[in-house]
Amino acid sequence: MPPLPGADLLLPSEPSQRAIARELYALAKDQPLISPHGHVDPAILAEDAPFPDPARLIIVPDHYLTRMLLSQGIPPAELGVPTVDGAPVETDGRTIWRRFAAHWHLYRGTPSRLWLEQTFRHVFGVTKPFGPANADEIYDEIAARLAEPAFRPRALFEKFNIETLATTESPLDDLGRHAKLAADGWGGPGGRVITTFRPDNVVDMEFDGWAENVERLGEVAGTDTGTYAGYLDALRSRRQAFIAAGATSSDHGHPTALTLRLSAAEAATLYDRGRAGTATPEDAEAFRAHMLVEFAAMSIEDGLVMQLHPGAVRNHNRWLYDRHGRDVGGDIPQATEYLHALTPLLDAYGNDPRLRVVVYTLDEYTFTRELAPLAGGYAALYLGAPWWFLDSPEVLRRFREAVTESAGFYNTAGFVDDTRAFCSIPVRHDVSRRIDAGFLARLVAEERLPLDEAAETIVDLAYHLPKRVFKIGERLL
Amino acid sequence: MPPLPGADLLLPSEPSQRAIARELYALAKDQPLISPHGHVDPAILAEDAPFPDPARLIIVPDHYLTRMLLSQGIPPAELGVPTVDGAPVETDGRTIWRRFAAHWHLYRGTPSRLWLEQTFRHVFGVTKPFGPANADEIYDEIAARLAEPAFRPRALFEKFNIETLATTESPLDDLGRHAKLAADGWGGPGGRVITTFRPDNVVDMEFDGWAENVERLGEVAGTDTGTYAGYLDALRSRRQAFIAAGATSSDHGHPTALTLRLSAAEAATLYDRGRAGTATPEDAEAFRAHMLVEFAAMSIEDGLVMQLHPGAVRNHNRWLYDRHGRDVGGDIPQATEYLHALTPLLDAYGNDPRLRVVVYTLDEYTFTRELAPLAGGYAALYLGAPWWFLDSPEVLRRFREAVTESAGFYNTAGFVDDTRAFCSIPVRHDVSRRIDAGFLARLVAEERLPLDEAAETIVDLAYHLPKRVFKIGERLL
Amino acid sequence: MPPLPGADLLLPSEPSQRAIARELYALAKDQPLISPHGHVDPAILAEDAPFPDPARLIIVPDHYLTRMLLSQGIPPAELGVPTVDGAPVETDGRTIWRRFAAHWHLYRGTPSRLWLEQTFRHVFGVTKPFGPANADEIYDEIAARLAEPAFRPRALFEKFNIETLATTESPLDDLGRHAKLAADGWGGPGGRVITTFRPDNVVDMEFDGWAENVERLGEVAGTDTGTYAGYLDALRSRRQAFIAAGATSSDHGHPTALTLRLSAAEAATLYDRGRAGTATPEDAEAFRAHMLVEFAAMSIEDGLVMQLHPGAVRNHNRWLYDRHGRDVGGDIPQATEYLHALTPLLDAYGNDPRLRVVVYTLDEYTFTRELAPLAGGYAALYLGAPWWFLDSPEVLRRFREAVTESAGFYNTAGFVDDTRAFCSIPVRHDVSRRIDAGFLARLVAEERLPLDEAAETIVDLAYHLPKRVFKIGERLL
């Protein structure tokens, strides 16, 4: 029987590879989803309220979509993206939806298109092709679905077969939504929805409001952050609170991968300058770099897996930032050096099996030169999945083609969806599983790996490996 | 009926992809050629004289060919490349032709070979394989063709189905050849042969004779370039003259992509130093960088599309430069940074829909990290086709594989042949169309894009997109 | 008749490409092996003693294997890797073998796995799949083979169809083992086993013991290395001795590709500082860079082909270096710049056909930007095969896909196995031949190259080209 339409999505078209890929994909397809790194708002699952209208759910918050339209001259305000100064923006969901649909051809060949089409089909049961002609009809279909109880967040969570979903919170967060989830039997250590410790806004002195954030950190933690030692205590204390809320990892988004080992006195000097408002950009970079090594030391104590996300130049599009603020599509990657940057951290703890550092990149031109040799040579290092601009079929494939030969499969960390778009979680994992199936199928077709080992590998990549690397299901306390 | 030999050139060999690629290529194949960026001497079309002998037409001026022979120890003088000091070089066309043919194996797998073979076959009707054995016979066949009226430049232009061809001139050019073309009904705004404003020799203080060029610029423009303000006036005035001669774009070949926004006073200081002969290399770089932002401002006023060609280290082969001068194969690419370099220009005008900047690269290791995210995030930016060393089947394919996922198809600018070799224009466009057909066919075969959308896309890439991006056929005055 | 199992290893699976690839591979398969760059201990062939037990032969000295286990937390001491301080390590071959086999899944998709499997099968006749279940049995099979006379090094050398094998020696080596080989009819100019002049330990002031090495160099050469002039004389004299022992090339392993042309006086000053122990890291880098240009000048005189291996950061894994010393898997590549770095050398001798410089890289992100344009534009430059971390099926393929279009096939230098693992030599060459067959098959299938030319090319790449580029079989004296 021929497969259903769409069943071979992303699988190699060469028949011998496709046959093997189908077989491998079938093994991975229904594995529970492990999502150890994402940005879904925990309130969605804590409150389990119905989603808003289709445009507000799908278009307005998705900067992949709005930046593409900006690149063709359509300003974000016309798509409902809120302004910093409250200047009016389009508010009619259907108008936004139509405007978006009118430019659907811009997304040909992009992962955004793929994610949307698959979400429409598999989450909402829409079978008509999206585009200007069907936009209204599809809007209505989705709106109708969203009103049904089966499309509430928790129902979808179960339909999506998610085993564990990690959200990301600042140390300043009171973790109240996670407490609610735990009370409902959805959260806490080993639970279905867990948190991640993301301290950037209290580590990066160049972050707007860092000094105030550090003050608040002291209040939340019940320690005096007037000194560097108190600051470290506060961080340690918040990590414990996060672990109690289920966290198994921390996440660090830095402009570069620089690490640095300062004495406590040197670090305290930088800290004091930061609080006094006299820190230079170099001070800020040194402090961030030093704190990565501090966090590694804390990880060895408390067991949190470290995630390092370097390489994004934030708010590169100045006009966009001035009008619409952070995280609306104005960030751009920059060249990222890992080898020398990570040396201080690796010299200190690189071979310590108690430490686990998952390193991501936005710069694929480090795959074979730096990242794969590092991950294949240090016990503490794992390679994270291609991230953000690189979370796409072509790069997922190039990632395996590039890193496997030096790092193997088992120094990679498994797929992370890294998304705020809850409804897109299944398709993102599905894309990764399909690409891995295709890559492994080629190894089999070229007689480089027997089918039984490829079969074991695809299940490991889809399920066991991310679970193990990120300690999902483990209780750190 | 099976396709003719050669019909499947460059199409993927996997049967399902090949069948789709044939279908797509058939749609693109006969689209008129839009050549918005090239270096054909306009005198060729203005005078419409017969071409010289085959060696002088095809080998001597083609530095792709002569540099490959130099790399194997055959000096350019033996191939007839003129010397700076007038030292004698080989002058016999047939000897040059035979010498070249004797080393034909060196070109296996290169685009040069592909272009030549297709040119021999499709322009000159030569069906024998080129090589040492048939060299003489093929020389005679081509020489015979070149004597025929149907092989005069204008006749070939029509045979090639070129809709518009842009040449490149310095602001010092009197545009006389374009005036002749216009008088003959071949040129002028919206015409078949148009010019491009290429001001490098009056912008780059490190260019031989910059100060004299700036003097002459004043004379040609009828303004006093003794001051920076007069210099800007002269440039504005020449842009108007170029627009009147059909130009729709300017072209800027810089060693780096650096842009800089100086005050008029700062710029004037650099300008004066340049004229006084006291400018440092840093001054020259700052002035070039500043002028890019100035040209962007002028573009917003007068509508010329900006093209930025950074990354070539000119005259790297010192021995070659000393003996044979510029543009004979001695340039080599260097690593090119775009993100920080373009920031001043983008901060000023990056989201202004009146500006259009087409950025090229010789450094493919910026495709996914910088170029695609930039083009997919700024209204003013478009990605130019892979250029020079990168204008080749493998890189054209990698370009689509790399940039489409972040920038889509519609933030790219279409193919430009960038060539001085008039007879190679059709095959260069044909290669690009074949590679795009193959790339789109894979998307279709992997169920990522429906055939009807792929069909629309290939025609857009071949024809509509370059026409639109470069304003071909538009009248800016 | 269908091919034997494993016959299509690494060939493209698309049937039309596979058919062509089989045909091409059949032509290359049995060509004699030319191994112009490797690290086999010449004592192995000089003494022709039986090999040690399987673990000591195959696992303990192979840092590709031990680093992968370290990356998963298994320390090298558990695999028998000797310690610097003599601290005890595992010594039981069978225990090491079992420990390795227990982690066999880590090597899926790596060249190490491929090399081992093919070595087991084709050298030792083991047909069972390797892994924990069969580890003991395979250990016994191999141990039994190793005791047979047919598995002595010289017998294997002949079975492997090696025509010439180059080893690598320091100028301080007395070349005694090569003298023994010559006496046995196995060595000397034009012989089966030849040496390579590798002066890093007397050139690189940052090398442990450089000053003492320079002293010893004087003793070995019988010159006074107390002065820079005497040092150069000593090097010239040792090169003559190496040439007399069959060397046709020198090899230079530098952290960067930097070259520099100092005056004799400047160089002497650096040299004196080095001997006085007052040289800075910058002095050391300048001296290394200068010496590359000196060695190029010597090459023009004495005919040795220069090999430049830049880009490895040695001993990056500090913990590993402290416990186990050099060359045990702790080196990592770094970004490598070639264009500006090589300029002084190329300005001096880049177009001199008497010089031949083979340049390697660990940074594939220079292939199309710098390396291919350089090799395709300078008479003296050749591109070496992908090296070390890049000696793998995927990169060998990407190498051809990237460099051929600018450099062709004939500015590359042919495959070098670069290995200490004698038994892996045949499979390494075989992998390269298979990948080249697949690449050429695609060119044929896409109608870019006729089959007869592809057939000539594959034999050139496998045999004639490395022989010619490295002057194998030539007598330089």
Automatic annotation (TrEMBL), chains A, B, C:
According to its UniProt record, the EC number is: 5.3.1.12
Task: Spell out the reaction equation it catalyses.
Answer: aldehydo-D-galacturonate = keto-D-tagaturonate; D-glucuronate = D-fructuronate
**Record GO biological process:** D-galacturonate catabolic process; D-glucuronate catabolic process
Q: Report the InterPro entries cross-referenced here.
A: Metal_Hydrolase, Uronate_isomerase
Recorded GO terms, molecular function?
A: glucuronate isomerase activity
Q: In which pathway does it act?
A: Carbohydrate metabolism; pentose and glucuronate interconversion
Keyword list (alphabetical) reads: Isomerase
Q: What class of enzyme is it?
A: isomerase
UniProt cross-references to Pfam families, sorted A to Z:
UxaC
Instruction: Provide the family line.
Output: Belongs to the metallo-dependent hydrolases superfamily. Uronate isomerase family.
- What is this protein's record name? Uronate isomerase
Q: What is the lineage of its organism?
A: Bacteria, Bacillati, Actinomycetota, Actinomycetes, Micromonosporales
